[in-house]
Amino acid sequence: xxxxxxxxxxxxxxxxxxxxxxxxxxxxxxxxxxxxxxxxxxxxxxxxxxxxxxxxxxxxxxxxxxxxxxxxxxxxxxxxxxxxxxxxxxxxxxxxxxxxxxxxxxxxxxxxxxxxxxxxxxxxxxxxxxxxxxxxxxxxxxxxxxxxxxxxxxxxxxxxxxxxxxxxxxxxxxxxxxxxxxxxxxxxxxxxxxxxxxxxxxxxxxxxxxxxxxxxxxxxxxxxxxxxxxxxxxxxxxxxxxxxxxxxxxxxxxxxxxxxxxxxxxxxxxxxxxxxxxxxxxxxxxxxxxxxxxxxxxxxxxxxxxxxxxxxxxxxxxxxxxxxxxxxxxxxxxxxxxxxxxxxxxxxxxxxxxxxxxxxxxxxxxxxxxxxxxxxxxxxxxxxxxxxxxx
Length: 391
What we know:
Distance between the termini: 34 Å
Order of helices and strands: EEEHHHEEEEEEEHEHEEHEEEEEEEEEH
Largest sheet: 6 strands, mixed
Structural class: alpha+beta
């Protein structure tokens, strides 16, 4: 499980006051299982491209497609997923964050992490779209996630840098299959290193004679352990090095997007305990909130317009003309088709989880259980904090 410790005295305060002391995880594999992984793909490598306005959703599109967006979030976890169930719950409580869109400036030689920006404790970003539909041969990634660690697990080779549990989730037969590997980020250079893992390999020895066949069956199976590249990097269509390049590009793109969250508008949408947050860059608000026609009915039957953008215009008061600057107006908290929506401006937001950087560590047997909080609860604490208004 993943947990975080904090002072009991300051139990109620948020991470902004730096009262969390240690961010903990118990995602240690007591045994190293042999896992059969379906052919999973993140996305085909693509060339750098310019920002395409037509690929963006505006707020009206978002509201009309909420059911599609939540379908992926509601999927249960597939048994055999590689990360702890408590970690999955924590990621979902934090809420999946949806870029608009997530642009990956692809580099075939690999990417470096911008170490001038904080290394967050946790990231959970949507990678799905209506176009990424699974086929018989390919399963497209739904979510990208990363959990910062204090140290690497025992079955992972040691490497310098800040450790991360980094991976993706895939829709396999209507359930999310969460897979991961371990990487480190050099604090000085931003270089990403991929950690080898101590893996179990099965060896099958066929029976050589009838006596052996009678005693052991058609074959005998024995197991050995050896250090090798993470199973996450294995792909029938690509080399290990190609998979590393893909992972580097996605981790760097996710980090760049996540580290700028404090400067974005956040549209928080909740239903039945599930949460999804849509990020909108400040300079995109004129496009994103352009629809002035969306409105809701209050309990009294009055129609009120929801949040929308108003461009700069002139307003006459008698003989005087006043310039009204561009602004956002309308309801910023409302219900839409059963979903609770809350639009938060970066100027009014207390802070996002992008500023939370405490690393995780393994829970020890002698730890005081009264002084820890599990990751499943931490996710909700961080998410609720993002909806607070700045004092």
